[in-house]
């Protein structure tokens, strides 16, 4: 038989198989745009702005829509997201498909694990972080100390123009280091600089259009060149560094006196060494530390960087925050968490920064852990669920003019701070960010300490500042900018 005919027959069979799988897979799922064979809905997606695309695609079908060959479901709007992640939290607590992360972590750690492993590692991580003071006074002391070090580094700029990316990455990274590795790093330490560079580079890569394509077509990761390979090399380098620190801890471990997170995990490993089913193994230790490192550094530093840009764009907001700082804290002591309840405007500004920038627009992917009936649709076990946090944080009924930066979104008519159930920058439910409490503390203490000590000066007229994110894939990243920190 002619080779061409054989090839046509094979392709026809593949096409028919793809059509059959799509039709059977979508039969019980929510409605959505019809996917093309093999390539799914990729032609309807703007890989430069996934969040906007999912919003546009979802609107005719909201609150739930099936996309990508029928095996992804997108939840749109507060009610649908709440119903899934909170009301049916257990059923929607799986980690959905994220091929690049799966390639790097192989299902280990706390962020990309599932089932029994995820539950045990998450429970241990939360308990250990709390024991080391997360959300308590002891970790507040560490954040205050780091805030003072941050101020000293900013003073070294001598009011000259600078890009704050690196300096704002050092502070939250050092807080995590003090919990995981027992001590902080000097801002000029070579290992520290190397780690920060890789974290920053990975955030840019994972948010790039190319990475959205890789996650849509996982075969690319194994067989084609591209920046995804740089991401994987960076992650291996970071894990190698973490493993080196683990070995140092193993050599000096005192089971009666744990010094940091690594020691606690090593002690747990010793306690369970005869349990062949134990999840407390070296692979989970290295990947969990890597997860805490990356999540605890880049999310907070990116939010801080975006916050300063927004304050440059809106100097009247910065002036009001500084007035509140002068009134409540003054200049003679460091800000503390007790101050926050007396600073409603500052609290509202920080919340509005997080709402406005919409840092992780589509959340990390979830998956259903069993077949579940959701709003009259049957979603099969293992289906990846994308929750549009954009649709919640930018809901125009809860937040009038959501595309406008306005701290008034979190203030009542009397100027008191106003909570909102729609505030979900850390996600919600059983997979909510492990470090939410620490991140909230850092954002308040770092930002108030900076504004207590410096005036922020833009190099261009505020009205000419561009605050549009340079990319809106996995994360919304601010454009590069420079400013001057003028000592007060």
UniProtKB/TrEMBL annotation:
Cofactors named for this entry: heme
Q: Which region is the signal sequence?
A: 1-25
Q: What is this protein called?
A: unspecific monooxygenase
The compartments listed are: Endoplasmic reticulum membrane; Microsome membrane
Q: List the molecular function annotations (GO) for this entry.
A: heme binding; iron ion binding; oxidoreductase activity, acting on paired donors, with incorporation or reduction of molecular oxygen, reduced flavin or flavoprotein as one donor, and incorporation of one atom of oxygen
Q: What is the lineage of its organism?
A: Eukaryota, Metazoa, Chordata, Craniata, Vertebrata
Write down the PROSITE patterns for this protein, in alphabetical order.
Answer: CYTOCHROME_P450 (PS00086)
**Under which EC number(s) is this enzyme classified?**
1.14.14.1
Cross-referenced PANTHER family: CYTOCHROME P450 2C9 (PTHR24300:SF400), CYTOCHROME P450 508A4-RELATED (PTHR24300)
Give any Gene Ontology cellular component: endoplasmic reticulum membrane
Keywords assigned by UniProt, alphabetized: Endoplasmic reticulum, Heme, Iron, Membrane, Metal-binding, Microsome, Monooxygenase, Oxidoreductase, Signal
Q: Which domain of life is it from?
A: Eukaryota
């Amino acid at each position: 038989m002619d080779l061409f005919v054989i090839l046509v027959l094979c392709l026809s069979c593949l096409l028919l198989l793809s059509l059959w799988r799509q039709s059977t897979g979508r039969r019980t799922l929510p409605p959505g745009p019809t996917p093309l064979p093999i390539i799914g809905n990729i032609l309807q997606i703007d890989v430069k702005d996934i969040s906007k695309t999912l919003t546009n695609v979802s609107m005719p079908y909201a609150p739930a829509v099936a996309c990508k060959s029928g095996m992804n479901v997108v939840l749109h709007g507060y009610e649908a997201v709440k119903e899934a992640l909170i009301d049916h939290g257990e059923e929607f607590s799986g980690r959905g498909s994220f091929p690049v992360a799966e390639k790097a972590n192989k299902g280990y750690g706390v962020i990309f694990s599932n089932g029994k492993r995820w539950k045990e590692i998450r429970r241990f991580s939360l308990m250990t972080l709390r024991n080391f003071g997360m959300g308590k006074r002891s970790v507040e002391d560490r954040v205050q100390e780091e805030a003072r070090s941050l101020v000293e580094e900013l003073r070294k700029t001598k009011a000259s123009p600078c890009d704050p990316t690196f300096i704002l990455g050092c502070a939250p990274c050092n807080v995590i280091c003090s919990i995981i590795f027992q001590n902080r790093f000097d801002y000029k330490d070579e290992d520290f600089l190397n780690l920060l560079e890789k974290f920053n580079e990975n955030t840019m890569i994972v948010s790039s259009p190319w990475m959205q394509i890789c996650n849509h077509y996982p075969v690319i990761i194994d067989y084609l060149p591209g920046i995804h390979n740089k991401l994987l090399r960076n992650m291996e380098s970071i894990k190698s560094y973490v493993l080196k620190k683990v070995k140092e801890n193993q050599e000096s471990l005192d089971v009666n006196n744990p010094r940091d997170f690594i020691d606690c995990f090593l002690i747990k490993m010793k306690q369970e060494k005869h349990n062949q089913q134990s999840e407390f193994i070296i692979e989970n230790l290295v990947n969990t530390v890597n997860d805490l490192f990356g999540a605890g550094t880049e999310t907070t530093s990116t939010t801080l960087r975006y916050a300063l840009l927004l304050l440059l764009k809106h100097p009247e907001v910065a002036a009001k925050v500084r007035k509140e700082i002068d009134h409540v804290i003054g200049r003679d002591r460091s800000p503390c968490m007790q101050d926050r309840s007396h600073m409603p405007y500052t609290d509202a500004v920080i919340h509005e920064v997080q709402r406005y920038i919409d840092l992780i627009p589509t959340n990390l992917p979830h998956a259903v852990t069993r077949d579940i009936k959701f709003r009259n649709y049957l979603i099969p076990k293992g289906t990846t669920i994308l929750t549009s946090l954009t649709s919640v944080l930018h809901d125009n009924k809860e937040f009038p003019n959501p595309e406008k930066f306005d701290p008034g979104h979190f203030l009542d008519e009397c100027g008191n701070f106003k909570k909102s159930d729609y505030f979900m920058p850390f996600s919600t439910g059983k997979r909510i960010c492990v470090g939410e409490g620490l991140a909230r503390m850092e954002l308040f203490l770092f930002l108030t300490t900076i504004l207590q000590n410096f005036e922020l000066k833009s190099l261009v007229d505020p009205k000419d500042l561009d605050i549009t994110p340079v990319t809106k894939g996995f994360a919304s990243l601010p454009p590069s900018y420079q400013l001057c920190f003028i000592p007060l």
